[in-house]
Amino acid sequence: MQDNFYDSLARVEGFEVLNGLDSQELGAEGDKNSSGTTFFKVGDIKFRAHQFKASALTISVIVTTFSFPATKKLDKNRILGFINDFNSGKPGLKANLAKADGKGFVVNFSVDLIAPNEQISDEMVHSALRLLRGSGRLLLRDFFEKGFFLELRPKK
User: Structural domains in the chain?
Assistant: First the structure.
C-alpha cells in the first residue's frame, strides 16, 4: 500500500533522512493497523514524524524542537502560562514544554494530520512543515511582546 505521508515528506526540497522508518504492526493478527517513526531534517531543522494507521484513518504527527537559552532563570509556571497562551491562539499547532532549567528551556512543536491515507497530500504535509519551521519564532515573538528577550536555537 502506498504511503502518501512518507512519500510527500520525501518530495520536500532539502529533505534528508536521518534514520530509516521504524515501523511495527499493531493489534490482532490480520488487522491492518501499524505505526512508524522516522527522523529527518529540512535545511538546518530536525524533525521526527510519527504515523499511526488503521484501515479507515491515518494520524500523522510531525514534531520539531527548539531551545530558548535565557540569560536569567524564568519561573517554570510562567513559561507554561506563556505556552498555554500560545496554544490557545494557534489552532492546529501545539507547543509543549520539554525541559526547563537555569539555562533556558526547550519546547516541542507539533502538527497533527488526521485523514485517510489517500487524502494526505503534498499541500497538507508541506504546509505543516513550513508552519513548524517558523514555530519557534512565533513563540519567541510572544515572549518579546511580554517583555522577555530570549534567543532561539534549533535543537541539535
Answer: 4-154 (3.30.1460)
